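Could you join me in thinking about how sequence relates to backbone shape in a protein? We need material for that, and I hope you will provide a protein of your own picking. Label the sequence line and the structure token line clearly, so we can match residues to local backbone shapes. Would you write everything just below, so we can both look at the same thing?
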Amino acid sequence: MHNKYRSRPRSTYSLTQLAALIGALLSPAVQAAPLGASFDIASGVTVTSPQKLDDNQTGVIQTGGALNVAGAIAVNAPGSAVKITNSGTLSTTGNNSRGIFTTGANAIITNSGTLSTAGNNSSEGIFSTGANAIITNSGSISQQFSF
């Protein structure tokens, strides 16, 4: 006798297996690039990870605070209308190093602290390509690079 309904093998998954599958689908490797976030580096604090600012976000390095990054742009700000204030120490080293790099329009950058970059090929303390940027410097900016 021919059964028109074939039995199919059943798969059973435990809750742990389902949770692992859902976790893998939502892992950072599958998600978009990380978003920027406003930051405030207080006096006595040293941060060594690069910072990113998106639209309307603010980055502050207070007097006595430090942002010391190796091998990357210290503050990367692709967002529009970002505000960056360095009253402490901002330094970066490495190939094509940049202390502050903005590409969005209407960036406001104020340096009254110490900003230094050192690297191969090129090295810029502040590099801004967005329209209507306002850059105020009453501190020190030093750049050291070799070819």
Remarks:
- The first helix runs from residue 15 to 25.
- The chain has one domain: 34-146.
- Residues 34-146 form one domain.
